[in-house]
Structures
1.
Amino acid sequence: MPALTTTARYRFAGGVHPPEYKGLTEDKAIKGGPAVKQVTILLSQHIGAVCQAVVNKGDVVEVGQVVGKSEAFVSAPVHSPIRGKVKEVTLASHPILGRCPAVVIEAHEPAGTAVPADFAEDFDDGRFTGQQICNAVALAGIVGMGGAGFPTRIKIDPTPPKEILIINGCECEPFITCDYRLMLEWTNKIVAGARLAKKAAGCKKVIIAIEDNKPKAIEAFRSNRQVESCGIEMVELKTRYPQGGERQLINAVLGKQVATGGIPPAIGVLVMNVATAAAVAEAVVHGRALTHRVVTVTGEAIAEPANLYAAIGTSVGELIEFCGGLTQKGAKVVMGGPMTGIAIADLSTPITKTTGAITVLTKRQVGHAKHEQQQTPCIRCGRCIETCPENLNATKIAHAVMHNMMDTAKDYYISACIECGCCSYVCPANIELTGYIKTGKVLLAKQNKKIPD
Amino acid sequence: MLSDIRVTPAPHISAALSTRRVMGDVIIGLCFPLAAAAHYYRWFALTLTGTCVISCVVTEFLCNLLRKKPKAVQSLGDLSAVITGMILAFSVPPALPLWAAVIGSVFAIAIGKMVFGGLGANIFNPAMIGRAFLTASFGMLMTTWTVPATMDKKMPQISASNTVAMTQATPLAWSKQAVKTRNIQDGGRVPVSTANDMLEDLFRGQRGGCLGETSAVALIIGGAYLLLRRTISWHIPVAVLGSAFVFSSVCYLINGTAYASPLFHLTAGGMLIGAFFIATDPVTSPLTGTGMCIFGAGVGAVTMLIRTAGEYPEGMMYAVLLMNSVTPLIDKLCKLTPAGGKPNVQ
């Protein structure tokens, strides 16, 4: 009997359905990444305190050795993916922070990475206690790999108590297929990770949520014996962006709404991305630190788009080169997908634990008006409001930020924005609403002295 | 291959939507009533619409030059001036002299839109500002209604040179007379059935009235097109027609011999063009769904109030302008609550 599968009864409000472009890489099996000569391990790859380097220039480091850590509660250590020598501890390009301290490691012998095999279907979680699982996750430096990068150790803590664990296999962003490939190739590992996380967090139920544009992934879990024997439920969701957002996913799967400014544990829910689940399984069973991840290198301009199992710290330029370089002119290089990803200017920027994709967009895909940044006046059509999954007045907030009226922005709940980008996506006047809102949040944080000027 | 890469905030792709496309859709929607107008008023329809559109576009161009906008032509590309011109032409009598149409257009764009800062900044619907100006300045011309060319076979093909055409009272004028004479006991009383009996002509458009608002069928098709294309949301049309329906039904039930039937009121005058094309102007209507419903309900109710209790036979223009003025207030009242409820701490 296949696992219990249901179609979601609920639907989060708003959202959009951009063209998927997943065909470029969805049938490409995960393959080993480039043999890197040098990696740059950023010391901030997560939400929380920036790590301190614990190695010095000239030190020899082994695979999986900690190179940076922090004593702060919200943080996660970073490790070396290769065996080599520390070249320097310096500032490097960071996709979000601009510049950030990093440990640069030179490989002794550059060697390609083999893709680890999946687990056997008869995985037994009885060997591990909750505490052991938590410790292994903390040591491995696992963070949410879907993009947010919240330290997983804190998430799976048994306090506050949680009822339901949702495994997030939505991957609603266009272009990205790394989670999709993982669901097909590492099905057992993901299920094992889910069971371990469930045990550690004390959840009673596990639900795997996948969008209906990935029927093969749904089938892979449905026919998995482990899923069936452990009573894991499957929920098929109607494809819609930003369904992979934790608040939207909970809404779509359970019909519950996480309070504004609240976190899912407040309503007894824990959401974990499939890649994170797989990393948890590897960390607990093999004691492997989070030093590699699957990255989709994609875009029409890329010669051979691929899903690569790459060392964290590999530069974007190297990954693009490894995929045959470009066949046509690229207009934007984005770390992540086109809806929430960060455009970068420096191709030496290294990938982090949260980088799911390198997307090279052509001018045609960006669109002429957006490429030239031609913003026209707001015609108050209200499309941004209609598509906002958080029911915010995007145009009001963005215009308040534009005119430096931060009190108005606060008054219209700027902090409740999840920065999904739906408003900017639909805006006929091509106003960078999400961009203004992000700027506004930074301005507010500076005002409140949370970050320095 | 990666020499000219740009860094901007996410998202990096956008829906195939632009202001020009939104406005273009409205123009396509307006082509249905235009076709009906051309059928009933022949050349009047085309010359009047053409004159209004051209004068609106030229006025916007000149205003842009005056404002020393670096790309003066750019704001013409959004096509909003074309819509203003079309709606203005559709809401004036077919035989309006072209010089008056030019004056109305210039006023609509220059005073109705550009002095506020152009598209997106205007408080009032520019076309209605132009029409209000014409009504105030040339009352006689604005109430001289030409008979549709299809109505009288003996009438020569109406051409632009033949401005002395047959005129008649509009259906709304009959209904107004019925209201006004409702208390007269002897023969001076105008029966409301005169108005109610015109229902079929109202649907087809074979009646006196403003150029583009006569044919209910064409307006409904145009409105349906906009709704299907999701250029407009359902809130405003439904609210306008709904509140007008409720209002007129109550009047009809109270005194069916003095007040025209609800169906008459929904199809007569500017009700349909107002509900689908004028009140739905995004710039001058509220942003949120609730706000749009309040706005639409207000437009419908004020229109009906003027029709039944006011001095004028028709009230769509004043209703729209009045509700435009309270749009900021409505927006303020209809503040959205985030999906997760109000945050505990700001």
2.
Amino acid sequence: MSWKRWLFGRRELTLALACVAVAVFFQFLSPYFLTADNLITILRNSVELLLVSLGITFVLATAGIDIAVGGALGICAIFVGWSVQGGWPLVVVVLIGPLVGTGLGLVSAFLIVQGKIPPIIATLGLFGVYRAAIFLLLGGSWISGLPDTLGPAVNTIIAGIPLTAIYILFFYFIGWVVIRWVPLGIAIRAIGGNERAARLSGVSIGRTKFFVYGFTGLLVGCAAFLYVARYRNVETSTGGLIALDAIVASVLGGTSVLGGKANLLGAMFGVLLVRVLQNGFVLIGVPSLWEQVITGGLLIGVLILDALAERSHAQGRPRNRGNAPQWLATP
Amino acid sequence: MVGDAMISAFKQIRFGGLLVLWFVALLIFAVFAPAFFTPANFNSVLQFSTLLALVTLGQTLVVLTGGGGIDLSVGGIVSLSGLVIASLMKAGVPISIAALAGILSGGLLGSINGFIITRLRLLPLIVTLGTYYAYNGLALALTGGAPISGLPVSFGSLGQQSILAVPLHTLVLVVPIFLVMQFTLNQTPLGRWIYAVGSNEKAARLVGLPVAMIRLGVYILSGVLAALAGLVADSWLLSARPNIGDNLELLSLTATLLGGTSIFGGSGGLGGSLAAVLFFTSLQVGLQMLNVNSIWQLGLVGIFLIGSVLLDRMIRTAETK
């Protein structure tokens, strides 16, 4: 195996190196970049997206898609906000987000599995419903000025390691165990690769999809908890289009929207690269309005490089033409 | 014979279901907000519908050509080309040339989508997701988030004038464009090709259809139509807002799907999409008259979208039995 293949064949490694290179670049331009404070800030700004991207990576691996996660995050955040506001027991405050999130994820799964609706249509519809529900629940105003009871959950640093990093490592570890070491992980990738073949070889399509969307909902709920802990308010726009951000991160990380592949570490470094770039550009004086352009440019750039690399790599090999993309696939 | 007629009638039912929904909505408005049925209100429904109608016509064609066809960047193109037109006009360029430049820029932005998708054979969802960020972001970043306002009042005629309660832009843009596209889609070989590419790409390729060219073409057309929407918005508001196109991508996609076009491509049409757009805007305007927050429109549309697909599936299951 040549060094090129070794270096560029593994997406997570390429992205990690890109993160380092970008960090070194920004350090030259702004000495503040590589301080512990700033790095912790970057991490804290990435936490919600990291969790949602992990879920989206699972969903994409089954050749599905979930546009509704942003709306679901908003709804979960409202419940967490209420629980803090009402001074509910700590157990409830911690659990309500993940519980509501899992429930909403199962709704998506129900429509997709039982209703046999293509994931993109089901979750697009749910997105609209959730946005209206957020408005209804909030009554048009914001939940704001919450007490800082949840502050320690995001600000604590244990032995030099921020607690947020521990959450992320914990969930990504679980994700890795599932996708790599549990039969369920094989089922997930098998469904994404070829759903019919997976069904014929005895994979329970319904159960697997319920798990994937439910797990994503759980992560969305956790993200909502961390969101409320961090900002101490909930707006009608909370969650927004985080689904699209998460798809970008997963795709950057090497997960295909065609399904069958899941690169968890890639998704993690995908989020970090986007956030490092955004943070760095702000530090060197680029207005934060350029954030979206950076995200979009990065995605398009990586896609084009990828396609060109594959083209030179696979010269003369017939390409798989004419197959309908699987992310549209109905159950 | 009778069976065939039954099946084709069933296939129309989604379109029919949409009309029924629309009718029910109108009935509710008739009871609770009689003012809904005034020429002035008819005018405002059409006024609000033009942007979404133009964008949805493009989106429908993109989805029809299959291969995972989807254009998430339309909102960004609306905003960006609107800004191009406004800034040229502020620089003293004549209105017609500025408008033309805006439309060209829309076509250019659409062709960027089309080229990446067809040349590099990348998935439209991902490519237009990237350009969604790039175009929306550019519109925000280049203006610093502030609108370009103070356009010449004479430019407002396209967006503000009406003839017999029908807005001028509906008459000169939406109706003619719809008719031409509808004719092309149903009566010309090109239209057949679009359906053929959408329903079976492999077969279309084997027959010798220029699949890549057709796909490139629909993305360019989608960009041009989005630019026209930007032109109308500029002329209506006499200013260009960097976020005028926000949410148009999801709304136009929802209208397309609600209108009966299959997400897999190859079946559906423009009539349903246009009906869905009018349904949306009637709902929006009517709910406003009932003092219901217009966010409900989004929720209801979501429910209808899921409901219509469920209904469709049930009918198809019944058909095969």
